Amino acid sequence: MKPVLLIHGGAGARKLTREKRADVLRSLEFILRDAYSALARGESALSAVKRAVVLLEDDPLYNAGKGSKIQSDGKIRLSASIMDGKRRRFAGCVNVEGVKNPIRLAHALLGKSDRVLSGEGAKRMARELGLPFASALTPHQLAQFRAKKSGKSGTVGAVAIDRDGRLAAATSTGGRGLEYPFRVSDSPTAAGNFANGACAVSATGVGEQIVEFAAASAICTLVEAGFTLEKALSKVFQGARKADAQFGVIGVDRRGGMIHSTLTPSLIWASATHNGLNFFR
Ligand code: GLY
Asked: Are 56 and 24 in contact (CB under 8 A)?
């Protein structure tokens, strides 16, 4: 199997400015090159999606990890999840404070019996695991908070298939900004991040709507039932469009077929295959 990696940096309500787009393209290329070369060397899809999302979290350009938005009580709370399609195993953390890379915590939880932890429990587990802690605050997000600017969403994610045909998905978010404290988005749920033996999907956009359409798990379940990835996407988007839902997805299937599609005005995505790199326009 030729490996495939697809990443996203969030769905948006407007197109990026020329300067921001240039910064984002540079960042996506760096992240893709790093994570795809590991995948091409034989790293598993699970490790590759974790690696890509760690790098996306570390880049303050995106609303996940460093650069995350601030909830209405002035606190930054991060959520992330990861799913191994072959083992059909999901793990995540919800509204955790201070952890540098919530996706590392989600990945570590894959090996535990209690696989989705929230708030203080998630933080305590991160300490026990010796994971790094760091402030996610940036001057830009502080200014947005002070100006009471929220935006509808913001998330990063990655999906991959490896040389052995194993699929995995990872998603991480800083939330919507100015939301009620401890709001739970889609990202640490199977609606926002899902993988099985047939498909892997990461969603971005308005979390409540992604949950209402169970977007990632619905697409993967349809593909597992025999639908093509495109048909599964169009079935889920058909209903979502009628409800004027605002979200997008990236996905890869067991043949290496890809989707990157959104109901919002823009979606930041990039893909890497043995044929080279491709980027959103
Ligand atoms: N999809 C991220 C959020 O709704 O917060």
From this structure: no
In whole angstroms, give the CA distance from residue 234 to residue 32: 27
Residues 178 and 68: beta-carbon distance below 8 Å: no
Query: Is 271 strand, coil or helix?
Result: strand
Return the pLDDT at 14: 83
Q: Which atom of ligand 1 is nearest to the CA of 174?
A: 5
Q: Which of 193, 210, 212, 268 to mutate to test the pocket of ligand 1 (most atoms within 8 A of CB)?
A: 210
pLDDT per residue as tens digits for the range 84-96: 999 999 999 999 9
27, 262 Cβ separation under 8 angstroms = no
Q: Model's pTM, two decimal places?
A: 0.98
Q: Which residues of the chain have pLDDT under 50?
A: none
201 Cα–ligand 1 center, Å: 15
Q: What's the pLDDT at 149?
A: 83
Q: Is 186 in the pocket of ligand 1 (CB under 6 A)?
A: yes
